[in-house]
Q: What sequence folds into this?
């Protein structure tokens, strides 16, 4: 696994240092301060989530976690303590590279979303005027729907766990009321799918959360 | 029958009726009184049998014999004062019969002799001597003695037989009950009742039964709490163990076995019983194995057990052994049944693995090997084809492995859906979007109303169910064929349907279609492991739903599943709809 990823990433021009244990990873991290960390959650010596927490205590270096299917809890836990994204094993090269690029972009522009207008192919959100339009047609959103959309456009292409979204939109006391979220995401999708392209902006990451696609599919 | 026995000889003799009104109830014709007499006698006899120790019983018996003769002598004396009655000596027979019926043969002989002597002494001329003047009187006296002894012994024999019959009936009833109880499935409950029955029947202080089936020791006790508590300490001490008797053969009756006194090492040899009880042990065993022990705590002062009791005990122990063995065998049979089913599953799994894992692996290995080859120059298109083959086959493997894992989790019962309210329409969209590569050659028709209420479901699980159904439909639907996915509310449930336009399913295969590793054979067959549908069923059922399949009249198959709308948390669901 390490070998394959090192080969792929080196081939794409990254300078890669690969280690086999969580402890080594933390040691090398302190020594080299890499631009991004790709972390497999199944570590031989310690919990992957603990590594994420330890890194976050030091810096905001983007972390992408790798995990197998059915380990949704672990992924959510890693994301909740500060991992930036996850990729489910087995994965395609393109997927991993795309995630890495997004994470690096976010790290480079941490205040993305403070721009007054968010724009993709069809979707356009004017944050100052609180106006949302799809393919030029204005969409009326309730305040909660708008807050939810805003949470997404602040982190395009980044996976947001149910917990994060609930906390941001409804407040910390609602973090276990996931059904509010699912119902509102469904409503928001319906309102945003009026455009001619029937594009999907919000994709479900099963068992983990949602992601707003910067480039609609 | 036993109940009538004590009175039986009295009913026959006509002449004896005239001498009735002495020691027995007067109104012979009245059935009520007769019954009262019978019951009273029976009760006296029972009290005599059960209440006292052997020595007391003997003393009371012989004293009663003498007393009865004295009373009859007094009565005869009274009668003689009025007029002379021929054969008045027969009155003594009543006393002898009564003594024989109640106390048995020993006291009856004593009563006969006493009657002979007192009649001789008191009423035969010359009175107050044992000398008999008239030889005819001698003959009469000897005849009387013989009659008394013989009828006494007959009555005593009758009594003994009555007792034996009663015992046997008791034994039969106990055995019947024990046999029936041991047929029960709950061993501990039946043991408890058997212990109680034994204790009552054998007049014991306590009965403790210890049974060990499959290394699961069960111990039940009945009776005096202190006696039960002392069983353990008593086991270490001196005790009596019922040895196995001779087995019955075609020509010989079996014997119940004898009590063997066992003095374990370090125990005082003298029979210093622990407290007021004495311990008896009856091993519970079948021909080959020992299954446990019946411990009996008997009052140290109580009479020793009769051979009938011993027989009862050994039969109960044998029954118990057989029942326990049967239970063990039943468990073994069940286990081997489970093992057989597991084995079948394993074989099917191996078949699936060997074929369905190897096929994609083969093309992966071949493609990768080709890419590595240096002596052939592949064109860019060829290289791409190899890479795509590797990726596609690996994806197929990944799906198969995921399904196998799910299946093993379902089979092991480890699957717990984490249900939360989700919009089914988005789930359908997500699944179809992700599976677009699989359905690229088909016409997809999606029929999901916009007002479909949110349903409580585990997103990952139902995603898997729908994916498996859609993949299955894609596998059997020819290119440009239609695949229709629909969802609608149906009362308190959500109904989801995936209909294909494939060849349909052979009638014979319908009931087994969702069984793990079941494959449709014949011309309609497609490659696969027979796992996807089994997983779908397991996941739907874990949600409290139902999945089924039918052939469409217009051709093709329609898979449907329903999910209940009642959520895991009813209050929250109403809250979310109000929000």
A:
């Amino acid at each position: 696994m390490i070998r394959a990823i090192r080969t792929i990433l080196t081939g794409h021009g990254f300078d890669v240092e690969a280690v086999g244990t969580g402890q080594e990873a933390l040691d090398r991290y302190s020594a080299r301060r890499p631009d991004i960390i790709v972390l497999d959650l199944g570590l031989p010596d310690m919990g992957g989530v603990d590594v994420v927490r330890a890194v976050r205590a030091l810096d905001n270096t983007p972390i992408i976690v790798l995990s197998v299917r059915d380990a949704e809890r672990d992924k959510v836990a890693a994301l909740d303590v500060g991992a930036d994204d996850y990729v489910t094993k087995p994965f395609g090269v393109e997927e991993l590279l795309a995630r890495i690029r997004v994470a690096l972009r976010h790290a480079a522009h941490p205040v993305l979303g403070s721009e007054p207008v968010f724009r993709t192919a069809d979707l356009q959100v004017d944050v100052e005027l609180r106006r949302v339009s799809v393919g030029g047609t204005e969409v009326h959103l309730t305040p909660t729907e708008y807050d939810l959309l805003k949470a997404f456009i602040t982190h395009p292409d980044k996976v947001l766990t149910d917990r994060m979204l609930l906390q941001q939109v409804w407040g910390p006391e609602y973090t276990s009321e996931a059904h509010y979220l699912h119902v509102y995401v469904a409503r928001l999708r319906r309102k945003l799918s009026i455009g001619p392209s029937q594009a999907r902006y919000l994709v479900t990451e099963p068992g983990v959360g949602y992601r707003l696609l910067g480039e609609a599919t | 029958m036993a109940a009538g026995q004590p009175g039986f000889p009295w009913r026959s003799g006509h002449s004896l009726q005239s001498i009735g009104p002495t020691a027995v109830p007067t109104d012979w014709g009245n059935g009520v009184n007769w019954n009262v007499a019978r019951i009273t006698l029976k009760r006296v006899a029972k009290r005599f049998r059960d209440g006292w120790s052997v020595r007391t019983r003997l003393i009371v018996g012989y004293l009663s014999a003498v007393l009865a003769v004295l009373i009859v002598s007094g009565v005869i004396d009274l009668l003689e004062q009025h007029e002379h009655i021929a054969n008045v000596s027969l009155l003594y027979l009543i006393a002898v019969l009564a003594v024989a019926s109640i106390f048995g043969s020993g006291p009856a002989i004593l009563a006969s002799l006493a009657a002979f002597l007192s009649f001789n002494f008191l009423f035969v001329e010359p009175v107050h001597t044992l000398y008999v003047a008239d030889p005819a009187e001698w003959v009469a006296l000897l005849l009387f003695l013989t009659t008394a002894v013989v009828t006494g012994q007959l009555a005593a024999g009758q009594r003994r037989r009555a007792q034996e019959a009663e015992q046997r009936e008791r034994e039969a009833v106990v055995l019947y009950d024990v046999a029936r109880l041991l047929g029960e499935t709950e061993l501990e409950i039946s043991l408890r009742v058997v212990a109680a029955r034994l204790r009552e029947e054998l007049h014991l202080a306590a009965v403790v039964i210890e049974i060990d089936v499959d290394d699961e020791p069960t111990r039940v006790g009945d009776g005096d709490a202190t006696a039960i508590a002392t069983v353990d300490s008593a086991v270490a001490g001196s005790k009596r163990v019922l040895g196995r008797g001779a087995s019955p053969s075609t020509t010989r009756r079996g014997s119940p076995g004898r009590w063997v006194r066992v003095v374990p090492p370090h125990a005082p040899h003298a029979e210093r019983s622990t407290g007021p009880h004495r311990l008896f042990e009856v091993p519970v065993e079948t021909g080959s194995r020992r299954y446990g022990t019946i411990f009996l705590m008997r009052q140290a002062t109580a009479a020793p057990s009769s051979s009938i009791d011993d027989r009862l005990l050994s039969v109960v122990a044998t029954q118990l052994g057989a029942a326990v063995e049967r239970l063990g065998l039943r468990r073994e049979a069940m286990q081997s049944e489970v093992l057989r089913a597991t084995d079948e599953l394993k074989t099917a799994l191996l078949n699936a693995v060997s074929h369905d894992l190897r096929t994609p692996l083969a093309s992966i290995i071949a493609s990768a090997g080709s890419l590595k080859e240096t002596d052939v120059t592949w064109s860019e298109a060829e290289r791409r084809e190899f890479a795509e083959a590797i990726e596609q086959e690996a994806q197929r493997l990944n799906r198969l492995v995921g399904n196998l894992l799910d299946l093993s989790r379902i089979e092991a019962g480890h699957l717990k859906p984490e249900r939360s309210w989700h919009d089914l329409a988005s789930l359908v969209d997500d699944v179809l979007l992700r599976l677009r590569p699989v359905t690229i050659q088909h016409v997809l028709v999606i029929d999901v109303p916009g007002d479909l209420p949110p349903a409580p479901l585990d997103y990952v699980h139902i995603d898997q169910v729908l994916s498996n159904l859609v993949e299955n439909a894609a596998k059997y639907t020819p290119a440009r064929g239609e695949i229709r996915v629909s969802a609608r509310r149906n009362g308190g449930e959500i109904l989801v349907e995936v209909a294909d336009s494939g060849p349909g399913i052979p009638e014979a295969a319908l009931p087994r279609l969702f069984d793990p590793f079941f494959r449709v054979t014949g011309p309609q067959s497609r490659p696969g492991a027979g796992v996807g549908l089994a997983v779908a069923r397991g996941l739907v059922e874990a949600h409290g739903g139902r999945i089924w399949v039918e052939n469409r009249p217009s051709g093709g198959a329609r898979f449907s599943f329903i999910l209940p709308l009642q959520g895991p948390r009813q209050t929250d669901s109403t809250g979310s709809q109000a929000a």
Remarks:
- Chain B touches chain A at residues 391, 394, 398, 402, 405, 420-423, 425-427, 429-430, 433, 450, 454, 456, 459-460, 463, 572-573, 576-577, 579 (CB under 8 Å).
- Residues 1-32, 569-579 of chain B have pLDDT under 50 and may be disordered.
- The radius of gyration of chain B is 45 Å.
